[in-house]
Amino acid sequence: MPTVTITEVRNAASLQSDNLRMDVEINHPEYDWIPYTLDPADTDTTIDNAEVMALIGTNFAAYVAPTQAELDEETAANVRAERDNILATVVDPLVSNPLRWAEMTADKQTEWSQYRTDLLNVPQQSGFPNNITWPVEPS
Amino acid sequence: MSLTINHQTNDISASSGSMTIDGAAAGSSTTWGAVGTYTVASGGSSLRSAGSTISGSTLKTNAYSSGHKRPLTHEWNSGENSTLGVSGTWRNMTGAATSTQFGKQVNCLWVRIS
Question: Is the ipTM of this complex over 0.85?
């Protein structure tokens, strides 16, 4: 059962093409005007989302779908960040530690060196950024 | 004074005097995504002062799509967009203003307040 009644909304903007999920500012009885993401799948019932949606009505900014170039740019940034994270947390602590490095056999050192090179070359893969094959970490 | 809870009508009443039930504060919740839930996430590149609020759609998650782990202390590069997908309103509980540092977006502690 909703425990907070919203009577005013403003600056609504659709977040997806079906106009069900929206960002909107609500005049909250305790917090005044605050940003709020309205989603019909929200399991929290503190606020009656159907009521807020009725207040918005048709007064909202239309959803603007990102272009394929923008999507590719985002994906590329995500992949690079993921690659950098693996280098920083898995590879570098091993290969830049002289004691741990010296404990490895020559074959293992070669495997790890190749793994590092393959990670650095992920952006050079032909399917980058949408269809890449992650190098397999040496055992 | 005594309080009476009628389980059939869901009424709560006092035998005398007045009674105040303040449900405004956001208590902690163990139901993910509900009001009172805490999470660690990035609030994007804009300045987020301590106590400021943002919409749930602005929060970014701590997981990579391929399943690789993203540590809680990870900083986001510009262009990364891993939306957490939560609803409602979230407050920065980190206790300090956070935005970008050295061109990276930083993680904050957030609590859902509405």
Answer: no
Q: Count CA within 13 A, CB hemisphere, residue B83.
A: 10
DSSP state of B101: E
**Cβ atoms B37, B114 nearer than 8 A:** no
Residue among B89, B92, B63, B66 nearest B76 (CA): B63
What are the tens digits of pLDDT across the range B81-95? 677 889 999 999 987
Of B105, B99, B106, B100, the residue nearest B52 (C-alpha): B99
Task: Report the side by side order of strands in the sheet with A22-28.
Answer: A32-38, A22-28, A9-14, A60-61
> pTM for this structure?
0.72
The two counts, helices (H) then strands (E), for chain A are 5, 4
Interface residue of B87, B92, B107 to substitute, partner A, most A CBs within 10 Å: B87
pLDDT tens by residue, A7-61: 999 999 999 999 999 999 999 999 999 999 999 999 899 999 999 999 999 999 9
**Which two tokens mark B78?**
């510009």
* Rounded CA separation B4/A125 (Å): 70
Which residues are paired to B107 by β-bridges? B42
Residue of chain B whose alpha carbon sits nearest to that of A43:
B34
